[in-house]
Amino acid sequence: MKKIISIFFMLLIANHANAEGFFDKTFFGVAFISQSAELETTTTGTTTSISETGSGIGLYLDKYLSRKYRFNSTLSYVTYDAFDVGQLMISADYLIPLNARVSFFGGVAAGGAIQTFSDASFSDGAVGAVYGAQLGGILFLNNSLMLELGYRFRPTSGIDTVVLNPADTITSVTDLSEAYFSVLFMF
Prior knowledge:
The chain has a single domain, classed as Porin, CATH 2.40.160.20. The protein has helices spanning 2-13, 19-22; strands at 26-43, 46-65, 69-79, 83-97, 102-118, 123-142, 145-153, 155-163, 169-186. Helix content is 9%, strand content 73%. Strands 1, 2, 3, 4, 5, 6, 7, 8 and 9 form a nine-stranded antiparallel beta sheet that branches. The chain is elongated and about 60 Å long. It is mainly beta.
């Protein structure tokens, strides 16, 4: 653990990065995700709302253009107690540089998600649309390494799983918002 902290500290003080040098480059990133799923379960006319938290990982590819824009594709997988969620998202962000090392961003996203239940009594899944917005900040550590922290607001549409036993039950995912921390590498 001491070595990891030492390496992280060295990266923070090493080689002052120029944020403009990062624009018009492509980055590969790994994100650690804490996601909140809002579910609605409907059985014979009665609807119950449930909130669950899961954690997972995301892989993404960033392309920076004209010092102001970022285009991103993200593939993520998050596990919960009784189900898993996989997402493929495309997003576009507007960047607001604070100084040479720090930039803030905001943007919109759209994509799809697949939810799979794996329970002792049943196994089923559903696919649907996900859309939303995100906000965050980027810290440019050096010419090939960045850290990113953000929040993604992700309402969903049409992720409905129908369970036939013991009763006709429909479980709908209504929100997949998440907080995340990313490490990005230029290639």
